[in-house]
Amino acid sequence: MTLKSALVGFKEWLVVCDALGAGRQSVILRKGGIAEGRGGFQWQRDTFLLFPTHFHQQRDQVRWEPGAEALTDLERPDEVILRFAAQTVWSGRVDDWLSAAALAPHHIWTEEVVRDRFGYGGETGLSVAVVRVYRLARPVILPMEKRFGGCRSWVDLPEAGAPESAPVEMQPVLDEPADHARLEELARVLPINRPAA
C-alpha cells in the first residue's frame, strides 16, 4: 500500500486512532453521522488515512489501558496530524447483538457506546470493518480546514500530503504472525475467510 493510494481521510476519535496505531484495536464500528447522506454510512475506500478528531471524543466512552493516553496531548486545533494508514481486510454489517458484543476484545469502546450505536436511529446493526493498520515513517501534517468538519466519516485530503518525489514509507503495526492470529480470532465472529496457515 502507498500513501498516494490512501489520500482520503477516515475520521475517528483520536484515542481510537491511537489504539488502532498501537495494535490494541483491529475493528472499526460505524453507524453513520447526520451528514452521511440518504444511504447512510458506506465503506467507500479500501485504503485510507486515519484522520483523528476531538469533536465527539469522550474519555468515559472508551476502556483505557496503561499508556493509552500517550498521544492525546498532541491535540492542535489549527492542524491535523495523520500518523496511520489503514487497509480494509473485511467489511460488512453485523445485525445481531451477540456478534457485535463478541467484538469487544478487538476495540476499546465501552459496551454502552457499542449498544448505543447498535440501536441508534431505531434500526439495529452496525457497519464493521476489520483493518490492518500501518504507521507512517513520518506524519502528514495538514492545516485544519473548515471542509474537514461536520458529522461525516470521509474527507478528501490534498495531494500535497503525499508528494510523489518524496514517498512516505509505512510499516504494519502488527507483524505477520500477530496479524494472522488476530484474523483467526475475528473469523470466529465475522464471516471472514480464514487466513492460510
Structure explained in plain terms:
The protein has one domain. The protein is 17% helix and 29% strand. It is built from four helices and seven strands. Strands 1, 2, 3, 4, 5, 6 and 7 form a seven-stranded mixed β-sheet that branches. The model has no long low-confidence stretch (mean pLDDT 82).
Number of strands: 7
| pLDDT < 50 stretches | none
- N-to-C order of helices and strands: EHEEEHHEEEH
End-to-end separation: 23 Å
The helix fraction, in percent, is 10-25%
Major sheet description: 7 strands, mixed
Question: Helical stretch count?
Answer: 4
Structural class: alpha+beta
- The chain-level mean pLDDT equals 82
Shape designation: globular
Give the domain tally: 1
**Portion in beta strands:** 25-35%
- Compute the gyration radius: what is it? 16 Å
